[in-house]
Every structure is written in C-alpha cells, then in structure tokens.
Specification:
The chain is α+β, with helices and mostly antiparallel strands. The protein has six helices and seven strands; from the N terminus they run H-H-H-H-E-E-E-E-E-H-E-E-H.
C-alpha cells in the first residue's frame, strides 16, 4: 500500500511540473517568444504589441522571405528591434540619396544658368538705322523694302566666330511689333563692335510689317535672344541644348 501511494505522489509531481511549465509558457510575454509560423496569427489581435510594432514585424517577415533570413532563432522582440534599426538605416540612406539628388539638381541648375548667362550676355544688339525703299514696279520692286543697320557688340571676354538668334522690335510701350531671325557669320573680337545691314520685303497684308515701317527709329526698342553662338576657341553654346 505504501508503494502505491509513493507512485501516486510521483505521478502527481510530474503532472504539477508539466502544468507549471505550461502556465509559465502561457504567461510568457509575446515579445519574448521565439518566432514561429504561428506568430503572425498570434499578434494579429494581440493587445500586447502596438500597431507600430506589428507593422515592423510584418516588414521583417517580408524582408526575411526575400532575403532567405531565418527568424526562428530570434524572439519577436528581437525581430522588432532589428527591423526598427533596419528601417532607420533605410531612412538615413534615403535621406542621403535625396540630398545627393538635390545637390546634383542644384549643380545642374547653376550650370544651366551660367550657360544661359553666357548666351544672353555675349552680344549686345542695337538698331542704329532704319529706312524704307518704296514699291516701284518700274524698277522691279514689287513690295516696300525695310532696310536696317544693326550694331553688334561683343560684350564677352571671348572672340566670337558667329552667332544666330531672334531680334524683336517693340514700341515704346513694350508691345511687340515684329521678330526676325538674325544670322551673323563673321568674327567679332572680344569687346569689339561691328555693324550688320539687313533688309526684308514688307508684306502689305501684315499689320506688324506696316507698323514697323511706320514707327520712327527713336520709338523702337530692340531685344535680342541668342539661339546659338560659336566662340573663337571652338566652343559652341546652343539654347536648345541648355533648356
């Protein structure tokens, strides 16, 4: 009888021990549990873990699937902590990448503005004379012809081989009258000036042509936009390449 009692006591001790282990395991915080396939379902409705940490764990799981990383040797808490560090590192790398992009953009913009300045501040164009040859069919002149003499000054510190652009004539109120293409293929030394004579036939059906003919020289404003310039050293600047 005593022997049977001892066996019962031994069995009871084992049961109590197992129950104790199970209770300890059940009472263990979720963050201290090793990762397993059931963890995602365990934390889904858990109030032990914040939504931020749940999101971090989700990212860690996705990352592990793509990088073949084994999470089973880490606790849930370790995984969350490691993922938080990985996210901080990614954010820092992204910040540096954005800063580098911004730096390159600023450098490109500075270069663009420098090249545009070179275009816009290389040649100064002025209108110094305007005259009109009237239509005379007896002399085989079938339309009025406007003659103009332009003053071209190289205001850069480089010799110029040639250039082309658009000259715009405006009235005294800055209203555009007419624009013409200008191409000059003769060299101009740095700081030097030269004159350019050109003419075009007036279209009697174009109000702008008539206005340009009738507007006195002293009431005409001139603006010039460089399209392309070739310098004496062979360098070429083109607006279409810059903009």
């Amino acid at each position: 009888m005593k022997k049977r009692t001892a066996n019962k006591g031994f069995k009871l001790s084992i049961v109590i021990g197992l129950m104790t282990i199970m209770l300890v395991a059940c009472g263990k915080p979720l963050t201290e549990k090793l990762y397993s396939e059931t963890v995602p379902d365990d934390i889904k409705n858990s109030t032990e873990i914040t939504q931020e940490d749940k999101d971090l764990l989700g990212k860690a799981i996705l990352y592990s699937m793509g990088s073949n990383t084994d999470l089973s040797t880490k606790t849930v808490g370790q995984i969350i902590t490691d993922e938080k560090q990985r996210q901080l590192k990614l954010e820092e790398e992204e910040k540096k990448r954005q800063e580098e992009i911004k730096r390159k953009q600023e450098e490109a913009e500075a270069k663009k503005q420098s090249e545009l300045k070179l275009l816009d501040e290389s040649v100064q164009v002025g209108l110094i004379k305007k005259s009109v040859t009237l239509k005379d069919t007896k002399k085989w002149i079938f339309s009025d012809v406007i003659h103009m003499t332009l003053d071209l000054k190289n205001i850069s510190d480089k010799d110029i081989k040639g250039f082309q652009g658009v000259i715009t004539f405006k009235d005294m109120f800055d209203n555009e009258i007419k624009s013409l293409n200008v191409k000059y293929d003769e060299p101009i030394k740095a700081g030097a000036s030269t004159s350019y004579e050109g003419s075009f036939e007036l279209n009697q059906f174009m109000d702008k042509d008539t206005e340009l003919r009738e507007t006195p020289l002293e009431k005409i404003k001139v603006e010039f936009e460089m399209d392309q310039i070739i310098f004496g050293d062979g360098n070429i600047a083109k607006r279409s390449d810059i903009e």
